[in-house]
Amino acid sequence: MQRFINDADCVVEDMLRGYVKAHGDAVALSDANPRVLKLREAPLSGKVGLVSGGGSGHEPAFLGYVGHNLLDAAAVGEVFSSPTAQSFADAFRAADGGAGIACLFGNYAGDTMNVTLAMQMAEQDGLVVKTVKAKDDIASAPKALSHQRHGIAGGVLIWKTAGAVAAGGGSLDEVIAMAQKTADDTRSLCVGLSACTIPAVGQPNFSIAPDTLEFGIGHHGEAGIRVEPIKSAAEIAREMTAALLADFDDLAPDAEFAVLLSGLGCTPLMELYILFDQVSDSLAARGHRIARSLVGDYVTSLDMNGVCLTLLRLDRDILQALDFPARSAGIAI
User: Fold this and answer.
1) By the number of CB atoms within 10 A of the CB, which of 127, 149, 218, 286 ranks highest?
2) Global pTM?
C-alpha cells in the first residue's frame, strides 16, 4: 500500500491536526473532545445548532460541512466507524446556542446507537435534541423497507436546507421539518469500479473483478444490487437515473431536481462530467429539469473508483433553502 500517511493507526488524528491548521480561521477542535470539530464562533446564541458526524474516510464529509449556515459541529469517528456516544454528546454541547439541536446523520446501526446514547446524556444536561436520518441509498434496502436504508451523499443536501432554515431564525421544529422534507425527497445510488483500501488494513477489504462494475455498491463496500459487465458511461448514467426515478412516488411528468454527482475518491472529474452529461439528457428525455447541480467530490469512500448519483425532488421551499448563502472550509456548496 502506497499512501501519504505517517502511522496507519493515527490517520484520523493526523488529518484533524492538518485540517484545523489549514482552516483555523473558520473551525476549531472542541476543548472538551479532540474528535469534535466545531465552527470557531459556535455556539451561536439563539440559533438552532446543527450537528452531524460519522466515520472518517468520506471526506469532505463530515468535517468539511462545518461552516457558516451549515453544520455547527461534527463528531469524527475512526475510518468507516461511528463516532462514540461521548463525541456526539460533546458535539451537541459545542453547538448548543439555547434554541435546541438538530442532529442530522446517516442511518447506520452504530451511528443510531451512539446518537441515541448521546441524546440521553444531553437530556441530563437539559439540552433538547431532535434527529433526522438520511436514508437515501435505494440499493441498501427495498422500497418496502425504506426505513432500513442507509444515508450517503443525500446528507449533504439535508445539511444545506436545514442549515438555511436555522440561519434564518427558524425554530427547532421548523429546522427538523425542512430536514425531514429534504430527506423524504432524496434518492441516491452508487456504482463502483474498484475497491478502496482502509489504511490500517493495508489492502482492499473487498474486490470488484476486472471488466465488471458493482451496481448499487455501498459507501463502505457493501454489496450492491448486482454485478454487471463494464459498459459505457452513457449506459451507466442512464441505468442509474432510471433506477432513481423509479423509486419516487407520485412523480410529476415535469419534475424539477437538484442533482448531486459525487466521486467516491478515485474518480477523475473529467469522468464525472461525462456521466453528468448523460444524466442531464436522461432527465430531459423524460420531461424533467435540473434546476441546481453539484458535480465533484462531496462524499467519498477513501480511494474507491466509483460514483454516487443523488436526485432531490424540488419544490419552492427546498429550492429557496438550497439557494441560501452558505460556506464551509472544506468545500463550496
Assistant:
1) 149
2) 0.97
C-alpha span between 43 and 95 (Å, rounded): 5
CA distance 213 to 236: 10
Contact criterion met (CB below 8 Å) for 60 and 67: no
Instruction: Give 277-280 contacts, CB < 8 A, sequence gap 24+.
Output: 277/237, 278/233, 278/234, 278/237, 278/238, 278/241, 279/237, 279/240, 279/241, 279/309
Task: Report the catalytic residues.
Answer: 58, 220
Contact status, residue 330 vs residue 92, Cβ threshold 8 Å: no
User: What are the two backbone dihedrals, phi and then psi, of residue 238, each rounded to the nearest 5 degrees?
Assistant: -65, -40
Task: Determine which helix (DSSP H) or strand (DSSP E) holds 295, and give its type and residue range.
Answer: strand 289-296
Q: What digits encode the pLDDT tens for the residues 258-301?
A: 999 999 999 999 999 999 999 999 999 999 999 999 999 999 99
Whether 79 contacts 199, CB under 8 Å: yes
